[in-house]
Design a protein that fits this description.
about 35% helix; 3-stranded antiparallel sheet; about 20% strand; 5-stranded mixed sheet
């Protein structure tokens, strides 16, 4: 009897159901021993929801690939097709499917909106996504789905967590000056508009140094920060993996999938490097996004992947929520640049 374990699955609602099975055994697919598993044939009834909106199409995708759209299984798992076969039988392997709804509608609207607030209407935009999502209430049915996904992306940071901030300087900087700049001199950044300072941190020293783009022989002062209380941030590091599509009704899945595509695009926009020459304009959409997140109750900031390292970046809206503990100076002795043809 094949068994699928909790380490193979990302969807949190499915994970809850597997834990309720109380079946601790060895996983057939990742081979982990003594782990919570579910009989793969029973998993079928929990995966059937994802057939919603599919039509058989000779030029389409396998069901295992459809499940990737929803982030059901861990990305590193190589045996998703085996799980699907064990769950639904060998006949599923001969079928391919396509969606009978648009997948990228919100991504297109976001692209149009970015262009509008950069070059058209900055403070009173007219884009569809602004009126239907960013300026709407949770009472709006579609917007309610978006806010539910944001709720699933909440993650806590604790006083025992450590974060780091770097500044290039030939001399040591006083710890009191390692936080946000005064609002009177705060320039616009990836997350903050001009005059509204946010605290930019990383979860490791290597990442925070890389983020300030030092050159060889640069001296960099790094300070350590920790929250003074438990805080909640929006985790945009991997929205498709962290959200649970199976927690929604099947008729909502088309909206869910569109929002997951949008959230992944927002995550990419936050992580994407921007040249200093174009940053003032290119940062306007991500500044808008962060202002929107700040307006949602409970969020003290957000986190996203760094494009310079394997670590994550954090933006906190109020630097008074964190305390600097100590600082030290580093010297950069080697930098490496990787290029590609454009």
């Amino acid at each position: 009897m094949p068994n699928c374990c909790v380490k193979c699955i990302s969807d949190s609602a499915l994970l809850t159901k597997i834990h309720q099975e109380e079946n601790v055994t060895r996983c057939t697919y990742c081979l982990t021993r003594r782990v919570h598993c579910i009989d793969t044939t029973k998993l079928a009834e929990k995966l059937e929801i994802f057939f919603y909106g599919l039509v058989e199409d000779a030029g389409g995708k396998k069901f295992s690939e459809i499940l990737d759209y929803y982030g059901v299984f861990e990305q590193s798992l190589e045996k998703v097709e085996h799980i699907v076969q064990d769950a639904f039988g060998e006949e599923i392997l001969d079928k391919t499917f396509s969606f009978n709804f648009e997948l990228d509608g919100f991504k297109v609207q976001w692209a149009d909106f970015k262009e509008e607030i950069k070059h058209g209407n900055r403070f009173f935009p007219r884009g569809i996504i602004y009126s239907s999502l960013f300026s709407s209430s949770k009472a709006n049915v579609d917007a309610a789905v978006f806010f539910q996904l944001l709720e699933q992306l909440k993650t806590q940071v604790y006083p025992q967590d450590a974060f780091y901030r770097a500044r290039i300087s030939d001399s040591m900087i006083d710890l009191s000056k390692m936080g946000c700049p005064p609002k009177e001199i705060a320039t616009g950044g990836r997350a903050n508009p001009v005059g509204i300072p946010y605290l930019y941190l990383s979860d490791n020293i290597e990442t925070c140094i890389a983020e300030v783009r030092p050159s060889n022989t640069s001296k960099v002062v790094v300070a350590k920060f920790s929250p003074i209380k438990e805080l909640v941030v929006l985790d945009l590091t991997s929205p498709r993996k962290l959200c649970s599509a199976s927690s929604f009704e099947e008729e909502q899945l088309s909206i869910v999938l569109n929002y997951l595509n949008l959230l992944e695009q927002l995550s990419l926009d936050l992580s994407r490097p921007v040249s200093k020459e174009s940053s003032q304009l290119e940062y306007i959409p991500t500044q808008f996004l962060c202002e929107f997140i700040k307006s949602v109750p409970d969020f003290s900031g957000l986190m996203f992947k760094s494009s310079f390292s394997v670590g994550n970046n954090y933006v906190f809206f109020n630097d008074g929520d964190l305390q600097a503990h100590d600082a030290c100076q580093h010297e950069v002795y080697e930098t490496r640049h990787r290029t590609r043809l454009v």
